[in-house]
Structure to design on (146 residues):
């Protein structure tokens, strides 16, 4: 087990332990998670109200860590293939995020703070890397890699 995998595993365990007693729909927040392959890991947390988060991981050894804090934030993730990693963070109000990865070994990190920011990331193929940060209000970013 390499250091990155160890840190991700510890983070996921901590996040799951801390949120285990919380109700699934507190404050109108919703989470939908689906995983099919094997050795996939998801960690996340929500605070605030009316946040939505939907995650689907299909392949093997995909990892997602997603947090939301605020109101009416939306995150939709994706991932097929294997060894893909997504980390997202939303703080504020009315932020919208996408993200999808289809190949293997792709990494996406996205952070939004503020109000009404929009972000979409799509990566296909292998070994792509995206790191985005949005602060403020009304920012829009679209990234597509093949």
């Amino acid at each position: 087990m390499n250091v990155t995998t160890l840190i991700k595993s510890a983070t996921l365990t901590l996040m799951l332990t801390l949120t285990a007693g919380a109700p699934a729909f507190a404050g109108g927040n919703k989470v939908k998670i689906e995983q099919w392959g094997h050795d996939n890991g998801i960690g996340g947390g929500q605070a605030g109200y009316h946040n939505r988060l939907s995650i689907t991981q299909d392949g093997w050894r995909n990892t997602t860590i997603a947090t939301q804090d605020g109101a009416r934030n939306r995150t939709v993730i994706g991932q097929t293939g294997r060894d893909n990693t997504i980390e997202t963070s939303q703080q504020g109000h009315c932020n919208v995020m996408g993200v999808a990865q289809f190949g293997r070994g792709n990494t996406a990190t996205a952070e939004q703070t503020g109000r009404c920011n929009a972000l979409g990331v799509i990566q296909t193929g292998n070994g792509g890397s995206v790191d985005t940060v949005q602060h403020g209000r009304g920012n829009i970013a679209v990234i597509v890699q093949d």
Notes: The first helix runs from residue 3 to 19. The two ends are 30 Å apart (CA to CA). The chain is about 10% helix and 50% strand.
